[in-house]
Specification:
two-stranded antiparallel sheet, 3 helices, 4 strands, alpha+beta
Length: about 130
Amino acid sequence: MDKKDMCLTEKAAYLTGLAEGMGALDDSNQGKILAAALDLIGDMASVIEELDAYVDELSEQVDEIDEDLDDLESEFYEDEDCDCGDEFYEITCQKCHEEFCVDEETLLEGGVECPNCGAEFEVEEDDGEDDE
């Protein structure tokens, strides 16, 4: 197996094996320090691999939640079409050009706030006749 294809724990074990094979892990002070450092590297490699697996799992869960939220938003905003009779009116935001619905009471107040971008603007009543 190529060293670049090894996971972190395998690389840590490989380093330990090299040090043992070279006799570097003897009872000298340097040997003891090297052995402790290699143990630490092995422990850190294990923890990093566990964290990587956990992050991958969380990432998948977040993707699923995002897809579910997209579905809910689609259903929710799809139901907000202005097919509710004369009580709701379709408005196009002057800033972001998104369409949304307002009830008659809000429309009569004159000012509306876009739910998409938060822009506030006045709504003029359009009676459907062209001014000539």
